[in-house]
Amino acid sequence: MKYIHNYLRLFRYKNLIFLITIQYLLRYKIIIPNFGIENIISLLNFNLILFSILLIITAGYVINNYFDINIDLINNDKKIIVGRDISRRTTLFIHAIFTLLGLIIGIITSNSLNSVYFTFYFLFTSYILWTFSLRLKRNYIISCFIFPFIYSGFIFSISFFEIKNNHLNPQIFRTISILFVYIMFGFILTLIHEIVKDFRGLKGDKLHNIKTLPIIWGINKTKEFIKWLTIFLCFCIIFITTYIFENNIYAILYSIFLLILPISMVNLLIYKASNSNDYDRILNLNNLIIVIGVLSLFFFN
Fold this sequence. Notes:
Elements: H1 2-10, H2 13-35, H3 43-67, H4 69-74, H5 88-112, H6 116-134, H7 140-163, H8 172-200, H9 202-207, H10 213-216, H11 219-244, H12 249-272, H13 276-295
Helix pairs in contact: 2-7, 3-5, 3-6, 5-6, 6-7, 7-8, 8-11, 8-13, 11-12, 12-13
């Protein structure tokens, strides 16, 4: 069991389960109710594209763990897998196989749907995830923003693909508005997650000359940046609540007490944080907010 668990940790299986849940919720709570099942891609093609996306993003997780070994050792990270439980050679092999399979399945499915967009998308993201781990992590601006951008893109790429042929549908503006708010929600919280991880790994990043936001801007200025991110995110939540759920008291209460208040807590905790345990608590709270945000999709009919 430990052998299997090590690989599940390497693949970040919790993130993958989360991604699968989001995709199905978006399809059945947003896309199908607004456009009808007959106007979107078949369930088979949906599952094939989703599977290829999961393979590629898992390959990204694997190679990121591979290149982070030395930094994690300096930071005394107890969750290190590569080099301890799973060899480096095996890690590289898994990355190559998953990337190749993801590209093959994704490109074949895209061609069957006559979609040049998805073919390019699979090639581009595979290249960026490799380049990100190998080179881009040392550029603090690109490193900080590119992973949240890619992660948000993976989450909503299928939804946008499904609605692109329904541009004349009267529900198109409403649907895009909803998707945009959820994209911002995912992007900002993933960005905060990455910045908080940078706070936690400050020692190792300095020794390896990885120029993260806390190193370039300083701790206080970076915490101020997180404050404005959380404020903007709260405004996004208020917008979607008043625009879509103005007559749903349960959705309004859900947004206030389970989203806006916890996000405000992140803002307060980040100013008081000073050690790894503090940052771990913030990461856990941030992850909980992401889950709660995704579950809000159940309010849509």
